[in-house]
Amino acid sequence: MDLIVLALGGNALLRRGERLTTRAQQDNLVRASRAIAEVARAHRVVVTHGSGPQVGMLAQRAESAEGSWHESLDVLEAEIEGMIGYLLQREIRNSAPELRVVTLLTQVVVDPEDPAFKAPSKPIGVVYTRETAQRLARERSWAVAPDSQGWRRVVASPDPIRIVEIESIRTLVDAGHVVVCGGGGGVPVRETDGGALTGVEAVVDKDLTTSLLAVGLEADLLCLLTDVRGVHRRWPDDGEPIPEIRVPELRQLDLASGSMGPKALAATRFAEATGRAAVVGAMEETVALVAGLGGTRVLP
């Protein structure tokens, strides 16, 4: 059985225009979980998921609590991994009771000297007007930046170096479990000279962590799921996605850094490291993508 690593984009939990509610997330996860279960009946499967809107909302809730309670982003990411992991684990099992599904809290080592800490760029949380975003930036010492629909908080997004629990994940996969892990890019930590781990105030890109995970597990396919049907040369002006592209050509495309750019980089890293294909496509087409139909296949 092939090993498939599936990365669920934010649209797995929240579609464009939807309010961030538990009901909306559950409804979307039911659809995602049915597709995952169908793939898992024929393959070994590892699932990761995004967390941008959710971690931003938890951070906002913590900041607005009485006494100006502050919760660090690594702790918030751990909360998100537990919450979304539970929902995914439950719904995958509901879709296919014969499957054994587990969620593993995942720590990801980053370099505290990564340049990303000096240039926060990862958008999290809700969209604000410019005036509101700038006021919150002053009040809460946030970095903010324009987003496609307004302004959002931005945080450091360092490159993932190592997945602490990689061998535990491998053991679970080899034992026949569907593993949900690396949620939101994983809990960012740094390693001291003595080998101890400490939390880091950052959010790691989920697609880059997923690529690192897929390489470490020697996956047969990396499948990056989003809310569009693949990579476009000139999004949204051209109608159809590119069906197949090699790494050197993909590198030449001008892709949005906040959406398709990280997916292209993740696919590139996997294809180069393993010599195998990665695919980018719509969550609704998950089964077809795994079968080699649809989406954009990225070849080394």
Identify the CATH homologous superfamily.
Answer: Acetylglutamate kinase-like
Low-confidence stretches: none
The tally of domains stands at 1
Strands in their spatial order, largest beta sheet: 3-9-2-1-12-14-15-13
| Helix segment tally | 9
CATH topology: Carbamate kinase
Order of helices and strands: EHEHHEEEHEEEHEEEHEEHHEHE
The radius of gyration computed from the alpha-carbon positions, rounded to a whole number of angstroms, is 18 Å
Characterize the overall form. Answer: globular
Q: Tell me the strand percentage band.
A: 15-25%
CATH top level class name: Alpha Beta
Give the % helix. 25-40%
- Give me the CATH architecture, please: 3-Layer(aba) Sandwich
Give the total of beta strands: 15
Going by helix content, strand content and strand pairing, the class is alpha/beta
Describe the protein.
By secondary structure, this protein is an alpha/beta fold. It has a single domain, classed as Carbamate kinase, CATH 3.40.1160. Strands 3-9-2-1-12-14-15-13 form an eight-stranded mixed sheet, with helices on both faces. The protein has a four-stranded mixed sheet with strand order 8-4-10-11. Strands 5-7-6 form a three-stranded antiparallel sheet. Helix 1 links the parallel strand 1 and strand 2. The chain is globular, with a radius of gyration of 18 Å. 43% of the residues are buried. The mean pLDDT is 89.
